[in-house]
Amino acid sequence: MVTIIAGTNRPNSNTLKVAKYYQNKLAEKGLQTNLLDLQDLPNNFIAEDLYGKKSEKFENIQGMVTNTSKFLFVIPEYNGSYPGVLKTFIDACAFPESFYDKKACLVGIASGKYGNIRGIEHFNGVCAYLHLHVMPLRIHISYIKNELNENGQLYLEDTVKFTDQQIDKFLAY
Q1: pLDDT (tens digit per residue) in 59-114
Q2: In terms of DSSP H, where are the helices of the chain?
Q3: Averaged over 136-161, what is the pLDDT?
Q4: CA distance 150 to 137
């Protein structure tokens, strides 16, 4: 099973648009995926699901994560790194069965010109600790607001070319 994780809980995020773009592209190639939008985490997630007994809603998310063999993370830049909700989500997931010796693909997005290079590197360190094997080809999409058309689709030629290349490598990974 493949799960795409939209790495923020911000409503109407460009992260979710990019995650759906990847989901659609993978479906075109015959791969059905799950999409986990961190907006779907329980409202009381930090108080009730992080360190104690998990809620039924989080148990369902945990089941999906446990049954996933490959993850595709779409991660926006937040203050020069990645969102705290993504780290909190990782911390709440069962260790080691959630991520240990599974595979991951990383996509960074940002409003600025570096496409969350630093945040992807920070997250890569967490992946290494979890024994989550990260595919070497990472994509960093800069100026994300200019990259998406009115339908929320990536459309600029170079970006489409590089994301297609990453998708092909992810399928083979």
Answers
A1: 999 999 999 999 999 999 999 999 999 999 999 999 999 999 999 999 999 999 99
A2: 14-28, 56-66, 84-92, 117-129, 144-147, 157-172
A3: 96
A4: 28
Q: How many CB atoms lie within 10 A of CB 21?
A: 22
Tell me the CA end-to-end span of the chain in Å, nearest whole number.
13
Task: Confirm if 134 and 102 have CB atoms less than 8 A apart.
Answer: no
Q: Please, are residues 94 and 49 in contact by the beta-carbon 8 Å criterion?
A: no
Q: Cβ(91)–Cβ(58) under 8 Å?
A: no
Query: What was the pLDDT predicted at 52?
Result: 77
2 strand-pairing partners? 70
What is the model's pTM? 0.96
3-state secondary structure of 104: strand
Hey, how many other C-beta atoms are within 10 angstroms of the C-beta on 58? 20
d(CA 147, CA 161) in angstroms, rounded, equals 13
pLDDT tens-place string over residues 38-51? 999 998 889 888 88
Q: Nearest 5 degrees, angle CA 147-CA 157-CA 77?
A: 30
* Rounded Cα–Cα distance for residues 11 and 81 (Å): 19
Indicate the Cα dihedral angle 109, 112, 14, 154, nearest 10°: -70
Average pLDDT over residues 8-31: 97
